[in-house]
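Recap quiz, item 2
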Amino acid sequence: MNGNPDLLIGGAWAHAADGGLREIVNPADGTVVATVDEATPDDARSAVAAARAAFDDGAWVATPVAERAALLVRIADLLERDKEELAHLETVDTGKTLVESRIDIDDVISVFRYYASLVVGQADRLIDVGDPAVLSRVVREPIGVCVLIAPWNYPLLQMSWKVAPALAAGCTMVVKPSEVTPLSTIAFARSAQEAGVPAGVLNLVQGSGAVLGAALTDTPDVDFISFTGGLATGKTIARVAAEHVTKVAVELGGKNPHIVFADADWASSVDQVLTGVFLHSGQVCSAGTRLIVEESIADDFVAELARRAELIRVGPGLDPASETGPLVSEAHRAKVEAYVELGISEGAKLVTGGVRPSDPALAAGSFFLPTIFDNCDRSMRIVREETFGPILTVERFSTEAEAIRLGNDTEYGLAAGVRTADPARGERMVRALRHGTVWLNDFGYYTAAAEWGGFKKSGNGRELGPTGLAEYQEIKHIWHNTAPKPAEWFKSV
Ligand code: TXE
């Protein structure tokens, strides 16, 4: 049995019902960094029941909004206090560099502060129905019990985009981090408890999604499921939830174009195309994995990218010299390697990378070198499918119309980048691209105050911004007649 119990159910920390454990591996060196409780479906059902009871009990829902906001601020303060420890957990769990992990935790903190301030500013909408005796107003109420499922690439960050608005709205919840990367979420749940989140409001189970999925989603006791992860799992969850008419929001990744016109600023374009795809070894839903570059500069641009990609220092996330870390697991590296093989067999030209680093010091980790494929086109699966690894594919265009067509020629629609010195063309492009976020002469940035989410198969619903709070709220119209009188409808009666 593990030391500290890792499941939080109804305000009490618990071990798994069957004593099951899971080893958590540092992908930088293959070492076991922790052993955590692996929930059973019964544990997951207990967590849902605890969230249901805490919601139906009404006390949390009735908590004044200012108190809920103050709780969010206390959570943010505790995360600030524990930032270094949380960043360390994120790095040994996911492999990303400490620099990236610290940025993630800063963003987590800002999300809690953002929703604390947003929710206190929400006002009911008053409607003039033409009768001064009637008070008509539209109010927001918490949607209810939420199941919040997060992936492994940004474990606490993705979870915070769900937990912060859910708490702000007055919901209760079961959170399930990825079984590959649960450590920061377990630490977070302890902070939430320390901050004073009432028993049953936030429950945590961790374990295999395939095993726990049905207990968390195939139930009438859940009112809302927010999921970030892969397309296949998102479809499964949406199908199961439909049976109960449970509202679902899913963020399912992307295959994001980064379009570079010949007049674009050269230095920032090279830099941002590289960081856009190779940051966190490409394990980013909004990674700019498709370079779509104007024909006239393509050869020189790709040559410069390759030169710079070969200089990227791949290494353990805890080593300050590392610029990007390993892939999250051996299994995931195998998937990325299969895509490289596929790209070669599809006829793409391997310009650089495509292999593991030769440095023996990295042999125990699941590292993979930044990889660029030129001469790509939309018939290739490496151009159409999310590889979720450090693989950049290069397509070329000659006209603006062709750039738009290529940029939209994907079943996904999460994010896109455009680089041009012509503001009018830039504005035409950002409106023409069918993606949830479009960057013009920048790439990868976001803010808690602006919505995040995808068009098409990148999902539905939005996180962050006011819409990210609205997802957790039901709308109720209240019609109050302060001077009731007979309706005088059926005059004969
Ligand atoms: O994700 P899964 P996987 C993409 C990326 C990656 C692919 C598969 O292309 O290669 O998805 O990754 C939980 N019911 N993204 O298999 O399975 C699971 O335990 C309920 C993009 O790791 O989608 C984890 O907590 N939950 C993405 C979460 O779902 C289930 C980030 C995500 O795991 C479940 C990650 C079930 N039946 C991968 N099955 C992004 N949008 O950023 C699994 N889970």
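The first strand starts at residue 7 and ends at 9.
The mean pLDDT is 97.
End of item.
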